[in-house]
Write a structure and sequence with these properties.
The chain has nine helices and twelve strands. By secondary structure, the protein is an alpha/beta fold. The protein has a single domain, classed as Rossmann fold (3-Layer(aba) Sandwich), CATH 3.40.50.300.
């Protein structure tokens, strides 16, 4: 952790809602006139697209689980190095994974490849990470120890699966069976590497459906925000001086389900992130 160069990590698996969180953080940072180094966790994958397909096929042949959730499929050494260097000096290196032709065109590269490692912008007020492993702890690496504010974004598992299947079908043209295969391949690493991060996170935002999602593999629609509630759990409310009466007043329909847990309507997720985390970021950067 760092006093002068705070690190905020938003961790969650693909399709969990981290993009909504990113928009909320963008608003917070802009309103507070901060200069942030934004880091996409996909840049710390180990393999480019074709090499990853080959590594997955080799693991399948050995009867082993292997996915982007796997520590071995990621440069956790480089991620920990970045966090340690940024926390100490406000410096470090990162790269970008080019997901599609639009991103790749700007670098005159092919989709599914990495840009070269580059220094993070200098003179920033904080580092903002979004990805799979912001709170990961393995036998060889402890990413979480360097993070000043760890935020988990994790819908119930059935919503997460429904979102992935629908996104793969409509955005990538995958058959539902392919998405199911990916979900099954990821499951061991989801349990061993992704899930434990949410026990370490300072704040979790979990979307819970109000409609039947008991069989996510046949669901025709992704539950909408107004068909959901957001469960917000604060691990140590006193540490961040969480003002629950204020939050209950500001967010219509909010209520407390436990002394450290606030529940808000699904349509209020972005607002909830902004008014709960905004004051925390202000305090973190005020001491920097």
């Amino acid at each position: 952790m760092s006093v002068k160069h705070p690190i905020i990590a938003v961790t969650g698996s693909s399709g969990s809602g981290t993009s909504t969180a990113r928009v909320a953080f963008d608003h917070i940072i802009r309103r507070q006139r901060l200069h942030a180094a934004f880091i996409d966790g996909d840049g710390f994958h180990r393999y480019e697209r074709q090499a990853m397909h080959a590594a997955e096929a080799e693991a399948d042949a050995r009867g082993e689980a292997f996915s982007h959730f796997s520590p071995g499929a990621n440069r956790l050494d480089q991620l920990e190095k970045l966090f340690a260097e940024y926390g100490a000096h406000g410096t470090g290196e990162a790269r970008q994974y080019l997901h599609d032709s639009n991103e790749a065109a700007a670098f005159n590269q092919q989709p599914g490849t990495f840009t070269p490692w580059q220094p993070v912008p200098s003179g920033t007020d904080l580092l903002m990470y979004e990805g799979l492993h912001g709170g990961a702890v393995t036998q060889d690496h402890d990413i979480a120890q360097h993070v000043d504010l760890l935020v988990g974004v994790t819908p119930t598992i059935n919503i997460e699966w429904i979102q992935k299947i629908h996104r793969d079908m409509h955005n990538r043209g995958y058959a539902p069976e392919r998405s199911t295969d990916v979900i099954l391949r990821r499951m061991p690493d989801y349990v061993e590497t992704i899930t434990p991060q949410f026990a370490r996170s300072d704040i979790n935002f979990q979307r819970v459906p109000l409609v039947d999602t008991s069989d996510p593999f046949i669901a025709k629609d992704v539950p909408t925000p107004d068909e959901s509630m957001i469960v917000i759990r604060f691990r140590e409310p006193a540490r961040f001086a969480v003002d629950f009466p204020y939050l209950l007043t500001m967010i219509q329909g909010a209520f407390m389900s436990r002394p450290n847990t606030l529940v808000v309507p699904g349509t209020k997720m972005r607002m909830a992130i902004e008014i709960t985390i905004g004051p925390i970021i202000e305090r973190l950067t005020a001491t920097a």
